[in-house]
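Example 4.3 (complexes with small molecules)
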Amino acid sequence: MRLNQSEISHYDKQLNTREIIKKTNFKDLDESVYICDLSSVEQKLYLWQRYLPRIKPYYAVKCNNDPMIIKTLADLGTGFDCASKNELKLVLGSKVSPERIIFANPCRLISHVEYSRQQKVFDVTVDNEFEVYKLHKHYSNSNLILRFKSEAKAAKCPLGDKFGCDPNVNAAALLLLAKALDLKVTGTSFHVGSGCSEFAAYDRAIGKAKQIFDFGKLIGHKMNLLDIGGGFPGANDEEFEKIANVVNESLERDFSDPGIKIISEPGRFFVESAFTLICKIHAKREVLNAMNGKLELVMYYLNDGVFGSFNNVISYNEFVLPQHYLENEQSLPLYKSLLWGPTCDAVDKISKHIFLPHLNRGDLIGFHNMGAYTFPIASEFNGFQVPKILYFKAKKERNANECQIK
Ligand SMILES: Cc1ncc(COP(=O)(O)O)c(C=O)c1O
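Answer. The structure with pyridoxal-5'-phosphate bound is encoded below.
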């Protein structure tokens, strides 16, 4: 198999990484390679519709802006959460109509606001008075969605220090200011934090959203949109089901009116498990105990690191678990090992101490669940290339109607 990044290869029943590795010339490449399963993204939408049928997902582009992912979700009919002019361009360029987009960065550059106005992307989030004035001046017929802060007690990446007005202190004042400036506030939004592990956070936030809705309506805003943000797990469907149960119950209690449109901004949910990263060991060092000369640690140097795909190890505290592709793996002795990235920076440490069989230069190792907040953030620091992507899709496609958003 040759490497061609614009082609989609098809597989029969299940994507088999070992088989792909056998057939592909990964070992000859300098850079790491992603194996992307586009059918997995489709299956995620199926899962979403099964457990959260009332909520329309607006995929958070920042999580993984690969054009093939955007196209896959665009064809399936999802909405999109964009944070910048370039993200808007990417999504609009994938034949997505502006009403399927929310511009969900509450602090925007004026040129980006103007671009959204020209493109008629009406739904924009806001969380402070300066942005309200900015919209008044540059996009007065937009639909303001008031973002408030309501965080989970535990999340991989909390967002509340940066975004969201205080629902008790500022929300009412912002709603009144918008009213005084003759701006429309049409809804409210929150984000409990990316990689949320306190599910009750959704219940608390939905309860607060209800109060903001009620006050907005009281002062004459036509509130008709609730945006419950992101935070859903990408590689744990059981946890997703549990969150969905919490969300559904809270919506039933506070937003049972079917006239209210409910949307969400899932990022990692759709893409995390769709990507496996294949790295090559290009160098190795054995550390011996100074006293007895015994092998203490084997250090492997990979062709990707924390300034590349593994930036999630630093920014999201991810723990990445490698998979080797040696034969007879059950019977192989294991050694304390450490994985480093390719740069000359000592921060470039991928793993803590882990146990691996004896590997050699040229051997490949894979990492599952690498689709969220990885390569879009990767840099070419120290002159190392960012990875390539190979796309795969199941031959027997799920009946398109089954998971298409109408
Ligand atoms: C405004 C906004 N929406 C959605 C997301 C996606 O979150 P997640 O990937 O946790 O679903 C983020 C992530 O940072 C965000 O900032």
